[in-house]
Backbone:
């Protein structure tokens, strides 16, 4: 997909790992290049998952989207993360990434796409609402650390 100023949307590559890590840090989720390389390798191997990037030579943003299968509802797509570099926010890149994610989800036979945002991310909530997303519920998220065999 082409955008103004020769911005393209494409699947992320391993060579994008350093820029993906840097942008993850901008979103508030710091990660090393090595961590992103490992995660990207695993996610890229899963046909129910895609990471799309916006580039104009430099990597400007990314979106992480997956098909979610649950017992309690039909399958749907979920945007797991979206970030556009601060210098390019408000220029349409986020919209193009969301549109590309919606198109990918539709091709995966999903008739619904979901996104979750932290209640403190007021700008993100407005961004999604302006694109037709509707708030369905407020919830708590509980985490517990458990031992793993990494």
Residues:
């Amino acid at each position: 997909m082409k955008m103004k100023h020769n911005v393209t949307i494409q699947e992320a590559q391993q060579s994008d790992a350093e820029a993906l890590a840097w942008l993850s840090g901008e979103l508030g989720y710091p990660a090393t290049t090595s961590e992103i390389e490992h995660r990207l390798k695993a996610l890229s191997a899963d046909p129910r998952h895609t990471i799309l990037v916006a580039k104009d030579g430099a990597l400007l943003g990314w979106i992480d989207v997956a098909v979610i299968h649950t017992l309690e509802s039909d399958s749907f797509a979920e945007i797991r993360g979206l970030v556009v570099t601060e210098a390019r926010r408000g220029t349409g890149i986020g919209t193009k990434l969301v549109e590309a994610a919606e198109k990918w989800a539709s091709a995966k036979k999903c008739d619904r796409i979901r996104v979750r945002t932290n209640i403190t991310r007021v700008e993100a909530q407005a961004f999604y609402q302006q694109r037709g997303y509707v708030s369905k519920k407020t919830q708590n998220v509980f985490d517990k650390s458990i031992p793993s065999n990494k």
Observations:
- The longest strand covers residues 59-68.
- The radius of gyration is 16 Å.
- Helices lie at 17-27, 33-44, 93-107, 122-130.
